[in-house]
Each structure stands twice: as structure tokens, then as C-alpha cells.
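Fold this sequence, please.
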Amino acid sequence: MSPKSTSLLVLLLSYGYAIVRHNVMGDVPGEDIPLFVLNKALAYAGLLTLGIAGLQSNARQRHQLGMGAIWLLMLHVIISLVLFSPSYYPKFFHDSENSRLTFNTSLSLLAGAIAFVCLLHLLRTSITKHHGTETSLIRGLGRITILLAALHTTFMGYKNWFSTEQ
């Protein structure tokens, strides 16, 4: 299967999962499928694709899957910035009136921001890399990015992982 087909399949499966998880089993209204639920799917698909890319022995496939993952995750970041408010993410704030972030949300966003900077570095490295050269500043940066993304997700809502109504 080509890297593009793999990325698309992972996105479609993630979108299906997100719809079932948040709309069918959860209480997210159908009107939020085009953006809010898609954003969840982009995050899942981006991380899964990045993980799949890291498992590839073929450098070309690893590169193409990694690029697909970066684009999915960049879309996730942009959509998250558009949606970020107490009305969409009430558990991230102490209350809707003063809009102050909780401690866990602050840690989550910090991990996510650092992961995003790592992604940008991976993108830059991927675009400017010359055959036979190593331009990465940090060996294993992809794995570090996945770890930061796991921290981002953990701080965000580990209490609600097994509770579909939340």
C-alpha cells in the first residue's frame, strides 16, 4: 500500500472511530462532525501515521508517511486554535467567566507546543535534507515528538479515557 493510501486509510478509520466515540456513544452533536470531531480524527491519524512511519525500513516510505503525519498534525493544531474556547473545551478552564487554564491544561498545551516545534523541525529537516547527510539536531526526534504528544494527551484528559459520556 502506498504511503498516501496508508495515510488516507488511517485518517478515514480515525474519523470513523471519532464519530462513533464522540457522536454515537458520546454527547457531541452532529453539527460538530465537520470540524470538532474531524480535529480529533486528525490528531489520532497524525500520531498513528507518525508511528507507522517510524516503523518503516524503506527511507522513502518513512519520509512520505512522516510528511503525511506532519500535515495531519499541523491541521490539528490550526483547527484546535480556531476552536479553543471554554464552550468547546470547558474542562480546560477553571470556569467560563475568567477563562483561566487549569494546571493540567497548561502542562498539556506546553507538551503540545513543544511537540509542534519538533514537528516543524522535522519538516524543515525533511525538506532541506541532502542525500547522504544527517541534518537532525536530535537523534530520535520523531520518537520524542510522539512522547510529547502522549504527554499532551495524558495531561488533557486521562481521567475521561474510559468514560464515553465525558
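The CA atoms of residues 92 and 105 lie 5 Å apart. The helical segments are 3-24, 33-54, 59-83, 103-128, 141-157.
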